[in-house]
Amino acid sequence: MNLDKAFQIAYNFYKNGEIQKAEYGFRKLLEKKPNHAESLRFLGIILLQTKKYESAIDVIQKDIKLNPKNADSYNNLGLSFFGLKQYDKAIELFNKAIKLDPSHFHAYYNLGNSFKSLNKFDDAIECYKKSLSINPQFIEAHNNLGDVYQEKELFDEAIQSYKNALNINSNFGNIYNNLGLALFKKGLYDEALGYFKKALELNPQLADAYNNIGNYFFNKNEIDQAINYYLKALKLEQNFATYNNLGNAFKEKGLLEEAIKFYEKALNFNQNAVNTAIDLGNLIRKKGKLDEAICFFQNLIDKNPQNPVVYINMAVIFQEKGLLDEAFKYYNKALEINPNVAEGYNNLALAFIEKGLYEEALSNLEKSLQLKPSLASAHFNLAMLLLLKNNFSKGWEEYEWRWKTSDFKSIKFNYSQPLWDGSDKNGRIILLHAEQGLGDTIHFMRYIKLVIEKNMEVIFRCPKELISLAKYSFPEVKIIPFEESLPDFEVHCPLMSLPLILKTTIDSIPAQIPYISVDSSLINFWTEKIKDNSNLKIGIAWSGNPKYKRDKQRSCSLKNFLEILKIKPISFYSLQKGSGSEQVKELPEEINLIDFTEEIKDFSDTAAIIQNLDLIISVDTAVAHLAGAMGKPVWTMLPFVPDWRWMLDREDSPWYPTMRLFRQQSIDNWNSVIIRIKKELEAILFKSF
User: Are 139 and 172 in the same domain?
Assistant: First the structure.
């Protein structure tokens, strides 16, 4: 067979897509004639297309020796080095192709791709534009130009580039997907969703589109829907992004084991994904495995010694362990590496707060917000500090940032009705909705009467545990649980935004008590159980919700109460429900703590018991708030750094006139609090005799 016929057979295989046969044919021909230029050229193209880059380089270089003026060959050689991620060499070769043929729009396009891979986005934009000036119908250049604009967060320009591509050919699903992504990043979520769906109409196998729809639902806090779409994407293509998104979704649901599993799979695809590794390490921390988390982050530090965020997260673990000096060391190291990391100053401020160094904390929060004015967690931490220091006017404003922080788990209801502005100009029927913990809700229920005084008709939506209590305390208000559908209303307001709207100051705190009352029949029911006891009757609670971020600081053990429980003649009653209640069984036999908590159905029962007692002693929990709201004497035990509402350096509370505050004098030192309470109780008993 002559060479021309052999070449034609191999070429026909190539043209018909039978690549393996074509490669075999060209190689056979080159065995007979090693310098057959056309065979070298097509073999080089085949090797490039099949990603055999090193072999392609060898073949194309031979072709260039025979044809040193062929721009296409330099372009193909550049693509081979590009495939090996040798971008600088690729750039050199694309430039040679352009020098030989200034109208080579593919070479300009490939040069743009090389600059894009090196994050030299301005150079990439210039190259794509040059390619399009030669060939305005080059769809891929329009698309990649859009991609680079997205990288530069020039979303309007990106959107226009994708639309330019689709005006040429509207059948590319991936371009609709890219257009949707640009719209999503611009905040046009619903419009973006339409383009993601269009992408799937054109290409039902486009995993990225399913992934992006998952992100749409994740952004709407519809986590189950998000997971559904991420899993659809995963069936089509296993990649880092989808596994990482699944990790984020399960983390959001609080399913830490599942989240850890998906983060680990994501890291199998990209071991250098530091942010994902940080997320994984933080989940280990949240599971309470602090020593394991320290080892994990130490390994990350060894691999990323110049990454300040890794040091910050290590510091958080030591802070959680109560090892503040170690925490300071890692925060300072992070800020030494990069003094412009806003998150570092924000977290450092929290460490200063834990030590009671409030001015230093304030300085660091201000520095954090100078560097990053949009850092929601810094605004929220500033709110806590300002309120703690009695700066209510600025504190309430900053407190609205709570909705934008990742750690704030209360749902922000996006009702179509407007947020209440304190007047009745937008309507008189207002929905007040509870947020955060039961103690917070009881604390701020005092504002319901103020809203009624504004000539408003109130609907109050709250947790089911407080329904009966709220109904009896506010008979003029329609009380509904979160589980029920809503009646019609005209305006709404989150319960804990009312101090801002009503301009509460330290002097205008609504402290008229009691604002919580209990059905007399329920009080009588519990009186019958308690009536035979003529001793001083004291209710105690020692533990809060363990899910609360600072519960370790505010809660104590029932064993801390032992010295108090030994005082006679006092009858002590447990008011501890849920977590911590099991500690009653661990008390010594000689300690008699009366425990009716298994008979408590909801907070109305708790309130009725409190009404029958003489004094409540509690850590900072809903029980303390309930007693204070009922106007009962209550002694509240506070950690060294208290919650914002208890302020500093005072033994009374402007929120609750019948409350006394017993503060730790040093970190985690409940002993001094118990000693003081014991002395106070003994003094009361002495006066009674």
Answer: yes
